[in-house]
Every structure is written in structure tokens, then in C-alpha cells.
Amino acid sequence: MVDRAFPVIFASQVSTSAGFYEGLGFQRHFQLPPDGEPGYVGLRRGTFEVAVVSNDWPQQQYGARPGTDVRFEMFVYVEDVDSLVDTLRGRGTAVLREPEDMPWGERVAYVTDPDGNPVGLARADGAATGT
Fold first, then answer.
1. C-alpha torsion sign, points 45, 47, 50, 51
2. Rounded Cα distance, 94 and 99, in Å
3. 3-state class of 44 per DSSP?
4. Distance (Å, rounded) from C-alpha 19 to C-alpha 35?
5. Domain VOC spans what residues (predicted)?
6. Tens of pLDDT along the chain (131 residues)?
7. Do residues 109 and 120 make contact, with C-beta atoms less than 8 angstroms apart?
8. How far apart are the first and last CA of the chain?
9. How far apart are CA 72 and CA 108, in angstroms?
10. Distance between CA 89 and CA 5 in Å, rounded?
């Protein structure tokens, strides 16, 4: 059995969305076309993968269109939630929920990717850094 699966994110601007996820520690490992504005970008973070494709992809491949409301939620563990939220806010990223210590021991915040999809940022193991 092949041991590989990954989500595909539909984006209005593939480069911009891929850049957002690169800012969360993902690294670009594949792009089509290889030069110029991509229609597909494959990203990895450790053993985890995600792909970013043009909003046109579903229509071209199977005759469907992406929805207009929340289409998915990505959840990413990071070293310092508060600092990353401040950095992203400085880059114009919308913050949906400020960093907060959760009863289960994680510090969690929510921001949006460039297409408005919620991205949870978390620090586990009671390593909260905020006040």
C-alpha cells in the first residue's frame, strides 16, 4: 500500500497562497509549470504535505466550482503562536482569533490564508507564551 495523502487548497493566486504556507514552515518541493506563475505548488513540512492549485482546477478536472464560504481549516503547530500572529498581522493577514490558552493545554490562534480559509496556529504541551 502506498502511504501518501495530502489536502489540495484551491487558491485565487497560487503563488500568494503558497507563499503564505511557506511562511508557516512548509517548503516548496514541486511546481507546475516549473517557471513563471504556477498553477500547482506542492509543499512539505517534515512528513506532511499540502498542495495549492488554481481555483480553476476543480472545473477543469471534474466540472465543479470551489465554494465561497469556509472550504477547509488547516491546523499547524508552531514554536511561538504570539510572535507568528504578530508577524502575520504585520503582513496584512486577518486575525480571526487572538492567541489564547486553551483548557487542554495548547495556546491557539486563528488567522486566514490569502483566500480567507481559517488556519489554526497552536503551541502544544502547556508552552503558552502569552499573558
1. positive
2. 13
3. strand
4. 16
5. 3-124
6. 888 899 999 999 999 999 999 999 999 999 999 999 999 999 999 999 999 999 999 999 999 988 888 888 999 999 999 999 999 999 999 999 999 999 989 999 999 999 999 999 999 765 544 54
7. yes
8. 47
9. 17
10. 31
